[in-house]
Design brief:
The complex is a heterodimer of chains A (about 290) and B (about 300). Chain A is built from 14 helices and no strands. Chain A is mainly α. Chain B has two domains: about 40 residues, no CATH class; about 240 residues, MetI-like (MetI-like fold, Orthogonal Bundle). Chain B has twelve helices and no strands. Chain B is flat, with a radius of gyration of 24 Å. The relative contact order of chain B is 0.12. Classes of the chains: A mainly alpha (about 290), B mainly alpha (about 300). At the A-B interface, helix 1, helix 4, helix 5, helix 6 and helix 7 of A face helix 1, helix 3, helix 4, helix 5 and helix 7 of B.
Chain lengths: ~290, ~300
């Protein structure tokens, strides 16, 4: 009986391991391939992208994990020789950082309102936020475009940043975290004569510090890899973020694409290593539409 | 302690205070989402931005006669019909496996979440290497004497995108299921163990019952995410992919270029209606199952 259980667990471990490796594969490939020289990339993947610059091209495509010769040449090309990529990286930062900061800030105040006061009107608004949050981008795209056009911010970074700041996702998630703060805590502060703003900043916010962090990570990852919004709202190539521009890298420069993708992955990677617990906590709490 | 009933004056003050806190968000949502969506509804009911004649449902009738829209809707639905159940069942399987005290559990969890951080562009590159006609998968198939498959230019293309979708979303869904599993009262499972219940019995009669709200939520979430898979498809295959991969977002994008507001607005309104129905179902189902578990 016991033996059987051990065997079962071993089989599960193996199955999990196989799955896990398959899942990790693209990440690992992106990083290792970024250290290959252009000729090695061409030799292995040249088949797919016909516009190669010559040299030996293998007849088949070889998925290769470990470069024959580790070189930083792709990074030198991308980061030092052509300023284009750094500029796009700066665009990404300039778009995403304000969105994360202000989306969480606006959401914190709104979530406090949803937590502190209940009532038919407010739960109606909250329900509306949930619907809005779940709307696919295809639906919000046209309204987004119209508003940007009227405000004259089309093709300017604001066209991405402003709707991003007011996206209801953070409001929803933060409300769920805040509703766990014991009501007695707020009541006690009120008896002590604290005003609403004081209760909010001195009691509510410190209580949900980890929640704020986990929401910020989720929002960051979501917007860091955005593609659809800039494609429609930011057609001017100079102001597009690197997430979009990466896919425009000439197909003859796959090595460069891998290297820049690796660079682009660093912030998410750091957040992952540093705040995985928060990330998991954030996801786990999004698991129900009710407050 | 029961909350004291408030009088009218206090209630008004509370309402004003709550609106103060809510106003920045409400203002933004109003300007960027509600008002423009109202205009989209209006656009879907008139015959042109210039002439502004009220035509009621004519735009919708035209939309449902449009072969590109029908194809896109059909493809999106048939993709979702396969991808969503797979995403739910596989994620639940992974969560159950990780729950069985196996070693390296937290590392596995990290690995399964790793797709969240890979930039789309490099995902697309790797998928091209894997599924190219001379790519790795075909090489692998040939080892077993099977024929090469032109993955992206044949009916197999949906498989490629389904794998991509699963790779991208299973980790997130798995975390949701793990959270659901953590909510099952331990005593219940212990009692079942003492009573000598089999693993299958425990799964169907205890775990699955408690997981049912999670199953519903993950289903809806995956459905929504299945609409988002366009991002990868677009980068893999461009504006006009193989017919089976022509998704709703392609239709929207291509209509966008021609600035046909009436067609575009009608399509957006139809999608919004479908989503509202789905979300309402989710709420009803959560109420229904929630009662069952709590009672």
């Amino acid at each position: 009986m016991k033996k059987k259980r051990y065997f079962g667990r071993g089989a599960m471990f193996l199955l999990c391991a196989v799955f896990a490796i398959l899942f990790l594969l693209p990440t690992v490939l992106t990083i290792t391939n970024s250290f290959m020289s252009e000729s090695e990339i061409n030799a292995n993947y040249g088949m797919i992208f016909s516009t190669t610059t010559g040299g030996y091209v293998s007849k088949t495509v070889n998925l290769k994990f470990i470069p024959d010769k580790v070189t930083l040449s792709q990074y030198v090309t991308g980061l030092i020789k052509s300023p284009e990529y750094l500029l796009k990286l700066w665009n990404s930062i300039f778009l995403v950082v304000p969105i994360v900061i202000f989306q969480v800030a606006v959401a914190a105040v709104a979530a406090y309102s949803f937590t502190r006061w209940r009532g038919k009107i407010r739960s109606g608004i909250f329900f509306f936020y949930v619907i809005l949050m779940l709307m696919p981008y295809q639906v919000t795209l046209v309204p987004n475009y119209l508003v940007s056009d009227w405000l004259g911010i089309l093709n300017k970074p604001w066209a991405i940043i402003l709707p991003g700041i007011f996206a209801p996702f953070s409001v929803f998630l933060l409300t769920k975290f805040m509703r766990r703060i014991p009501y007695s805590l707020i009541e006690a502060a009120k008896v002590d004569g604290a005003g609403e703003w004081q209760i909010f900043t001195k009691i509510c916010l410190p209580q949900c510090r980890s929640a704020l962090y986990s929401i910020a990570i989720l929002v960051f990852i979501d917007y860091w890899n955005m593609v659809e919004q800039p494609l429609i709202l930011l057609q001017d190539a100079d102001s597009q973020p690197l997430s979009v521009f990466l896919s425009n890298i000439n197909s003859g420069e796959i090595g460069l694409a891998f290297a820049m993708a690796t660079v682009y992955m660093i912030p998410s990677l750091l957040l992952f290593l540093h705040g995985e617990e928060y990330l998991v906590e954030g996801i786990a709490n999004s698991g129900s539409v009710k407050g | 302690m029961k909350k004291r009933k408030l009088n009218l004056k206090e209630r008004t003050i509370d309402l004003l205070k709550s609106l103060c806190f809510l106003s920045p968000s409400l203002l933004g949502v109003g300007v960027f989402f509600i008002v423009p969506f109202g205009v989209v509804v209006y656009y879907s009911l008139i015959d042109g931005v210039g002439s502004k004649n009220f035509v009621f449902l004519q735009n919708f009738i035209k939309l449902f006669d449009n072969s590109a829209f029908l194809m896109a809707a059909k493809n999106t639905l048939s993709f979702s019909a396969v991808a969503v159940p797979l995403a739910v069942v596989l994620a639940m399987g992974l969560a159950l496996m990780l729950e069985c005290r196996i070693p390296l559990k937290s590392q596995f969890r990290t690995f399964f979440l790793s797709p969240m951080m890979v930039p789309v562009a490099s995902v697309v590159l790797i998928w091209q290497v894997l599924f190219n006609y001379n790519g790795t998968i075909n090489e692998f198939l040939m080892l077993f004497g099977a024929d090469k498959i032109d993955w992206l230019q044949s009916d197999y293309c949906q498989i490629v995108v389904i794998i991509l979708f699963l790779w991208k979303n299973l980790g997130y869904n798995m975390i949701l299921f793990m959270a659901g599993l953590a909510n099952i009262p331990k005593e219940l499972l212990e009692v079942a163990d003492v009573e000598g219940a089999s693993e299958t019995y425990k799964f169907f009669n205890i775990k699955l019952r408690y997981l049912s709200p999670t199953v519903l939520f993950v289903t809806i979430l995956s459905l929504i995410n299945s609409f988002k898979v366009f991002r990868e498809v677009y980068l893999l295959t461009g504006d006009y992919p193989y017919e089976k991969l022509y998704m709703l977002q392609h239709f929207m994008n291509n209509t966008f270029r021609s600035l046909d507001y009436q067609k575009l607005s009608a399509a957006a309104v139809v999608m919004a209606l479908v989503m509202v129905v789905l979300i309402a179902l989710l709420f009803i189902a959560e109420d229904w199952f929630g009662k069952d578990v709590e009672g």
